[in-house]
Amino acid sequence: MNNNVLEQARKTYQFLSGDEACSGQAQHVKMLIDKLENQDVTVSMIGQFKRGKSTLANAILEDDVLPVGIVPVTSAVTKVVYGKRAAEVHYQNGVVEPVEFSRLSEFISEQENSNNKLGVESVILHTPSKFLKNGLTFVDTPGVGSFHKNNTETAYHYMKESDAVIFLLSVDSPINQIEIDFLHNTKEFAGKFYFAINKTDIVDDNDLTAYVDYCKKLLCEMMEVEEITMFPVSAKSGRGVEELKKFIIKDCKKSAREILEESTEKKLKDAITSALTQLDFYWKAMNMEYKELDQRFETISKTVDSIKEKAAGYEAGFEIHLNEMKLQLSEKVLTLFGMEYHYDITQLPAGLVTMDKGEFLRQVEMLCEDLIGTLNRILLYREENAYTVVRRINNINKLTRQLRKIRSEL
Q1: What is the pTM for the complete model shown?
Q2: Which of 71-85, 147-161, 174-188, 247-261 ranks highest by mean pLDDT?
Q3: E strands present in 118-159
Q4: For residues 138-171, b (16+ Cβ closer than 10 Å) or e, as one string?
Q5: In Å, how far from its chain's centre is CA 367?
Q6: CATH number for the domain whose boundaries are 40-239
């Protein structure tokens, strides 16, 4: 393992975890460290809508686990892992619900779950596919460029989590600006790319050769490489699917470490940049006029009071409500102060809700007190001790220098 990338990640985590203003970025870097140490490779299928991503994914997995349709279907991230055939929906509020495969479209179809009104975080599918047997996590993402803006936003968000990418084109459409922009963005995060061209069953060999040559030339320029391997496939007929699948399996088995190191380095740079941006917002918040800062603290106090009032009226589902309150407070802090305030969202398998009301109210009180106390502390709200102020400013300046140094070394 390239100890430089791992050590830089550990060093970054140590710096970030020592400052409450960067708790969200610290958690993200911790996840990068865990993936690198455990050699967990995530392979994502990405591309424009209606390129046949879900159909090709089913062909690669040799199991029709993903719903497909004539209109854009995938609207939520769908992760597929090795195991006995099963499906579960993970909601943003922490609830985990087992579901039948026949019901999947209810949760990941734009037609049935428009703008993700159900609050789905992701859908996890388990299947005994040999493609996944060595520990790969396979991800089908929503297509970019459709009428549904939420789908594009979800795809752009999740591309940051991908280690390797199957970038899918199709012969019924030349590479367009949407795909070019998406590829440029994905380049900043993924460590490996596999370029597949779908729907090859609808053109003759001469046209296919011309299309492949055209794509290869353009992609080499975009990726800044001399040569790219293209995989012509037909998800419908199965043409070329086995070749693509075997290549990815062999590559990920042989080069998992290199793929993860490349991916981690890119993601670590992004996490550091995000932390530096966070610190910039933090400075702006700290330097607000007292009147403006008073108004924002008054708003957060009203939010806290509203949450406590609602908590008193709940009679069941306390763990779920606690998670929802964490999400609400985190969003409010981001809106008011431009800061990511990280909370761990407890995973709640359906039916496993055991907290009583007394404990719930105690947890809510602690949640609210901790938030107000932390904001007071890190924003130096009404702090009159000059030594405390100077020490805080020095710590922030030191952290900024440390992060910039690591970023320049990557």
Answers
A1: 0.85
A2: 247-261
A3: 120-127, 137-140
A4: bbbbbbbbbebebbbebbbebbbbbbbbbbbbbb
A5: 25
A6: 3.40.50.300
